[in-house]
Amino acid sequence: MMAEFQLKTPIVFIIFNRPDTTVKVFEAIRAAKPSKLLVIADGPRVGRTDDNEKCEAARAIIDRVDWPCEVLKNYSDINLGCAKRVSSGLNWVFANEEEAIILEDDCIPDPTFFRFCQELLSYYRNDERIMVISGNNFQFGHKRTKDSYYFSRYNHCWGWATWKRAWQYFDFEMSSWPYVRDNQWLIDILGNSEAAENWKNTFQAVFEHKLNSWAIRWTFACWLQSGLAVLPNVNLVSNIGFDTDATHTVQTSIFDSMPVEAMKFPLQHPKFMIRDSVADEITQRNNFSWYASQQGLLSKTKDAVKKLLKWTTDGLN
What we know:
The chain is of the alpha/beta class. 42% of the residues lie in helices and 15% in strands.
């Protein structure tokens, strides 16, 4: 079945300064042979001389395309940072494409990921309830149905796909956040005061530009539309980027290099469109409550260091 599959959907490849992981993801894309490849690249950081060589090495990998493919490049000469570079790059993509499959330079997909995304991009193309097709499953074997996928509020982005019709709601400035925050709409969205408080802190950090994330902004945009994500019942993408060179995934975790499993076809579609609240509770607990607690611990640690430095400085004066 996979031998007969032809990848016709444009692939977006987001790269920066990690040629070692970039080449591994590139080889997965090369095996899929997309007819169109759109590449988004950030520029080297100021004061990091090693970035120049690493960024050039990552970009040189793109020049290895040896199959019939239209390659479009959106390369920045300066460093825009993760949030602005990815979001501005995707703005460029969806100014030209109606739909696309998106991979970052540390997310290695199973070969069936591409077919899974392409079929569901077509299946839900005109269904505005669906905002994202994701390749991630963080349920660690828990399955509520025998379907190929389930519906979630969490739009995981380690290998995903979406449409121009959905991306149009992305707002980098999160202009609606103060109203949502002050009127406690997160409780309506999440139905849980603890989860709402965790996400309130996260959204506020992004809104104040203390957390350099495009993905949190995208989650906010999806939630404002009551948008659902399609998540596979097997994990289709492995993130191999957990190391000190990463922007966010600098510490090892249970999500580091998770094994992938092939999706079986034909897809078994759910008989109804109801969000799997049980699966989402597992995700909230494993993925996001832990993250929020770590952010709080990090903040407290920074405050303690500042106080210690101030005490030391005052003591020396």
